[in-house]
From TrEMBL:
Gene3D superfamilies: Homeodomain-like (1.10.10.60). Residues 54-86 form the Terminase ATPase subunit N-terminal domain. InterPro entries: ATPase_terminase-su_N, Homeodomain-like_sf, Transposase_27_IS1. Coiled coil: none annotated. It comes from Kordia algicida OT-1. This is Terminase ATPase subunit N-terminal domain-containing protein. It comes from the Bacteria.
Length: 139
């Protein structure tokens, strides 16, 4: 089984560090975090990498993504670097966002005022949904 990133900081620089309970243990060279292979759900890992980068591209800051996904901003910074993600800098398009469940999401879109004059995207976030909204001509 191949590990790609430290689950704590997202670094791909780690060394083998003994066997614990029949599982290979690794030590991250960057943050000194210890982890073993089964701690990393590859699927969940990919999911959060994708979500993080998606939110980053939507204009959210590292700290905001950290707050929403519960992933260290250091991990996100490492992924942005690793996948060479670039976004055009434009502070006037900073989006606002809401976390809604399926019912709330339905209600939100029933009210035309909520989406008037704004761009909105919806992305899945665990068992809820995240709605990201730009109000381009706000000021
Ligand atoms: Zn690490």
């Amino acid at each position: 089984m191949k590990i790609e990133l430290c689950p704590n900081c997202g670094s791909d620089s780690y060394i083998k560090s003994g066997i614990v309970n029949n599982r290979q243990r690794y030590k991250c060279k960057k943050c000194n975090y210890f982890f073993s292979v089964n701690k990393i759900g590859k699927k969940i890992d990919d999911y959060y990498v994708n979500k993080s980068l998606q939110l980053y591209l939507e204009g959210l800051t590292y700290r905001e993504i950290e707050r929403i996904l519960g992933i260290s901003h250091v991990s996100i910074m490492n992924w942005v670097k690793k996948y060479n993600i670039k976004r055009p800098y434009n502070s006037t398009y900073h989006p606002t966002y809401k976390i809604l469940n399926a019912d709330e999401l339905g209600n939100y879109f029933q009210n035309a005022e909520n989406v008037k004059g704004a761009g909105v995207i919806v992305t899945e976030l665990g068992d809820k949904f995240m709605l990201i909204k730009w109000e381009r001509f706000k000021d």
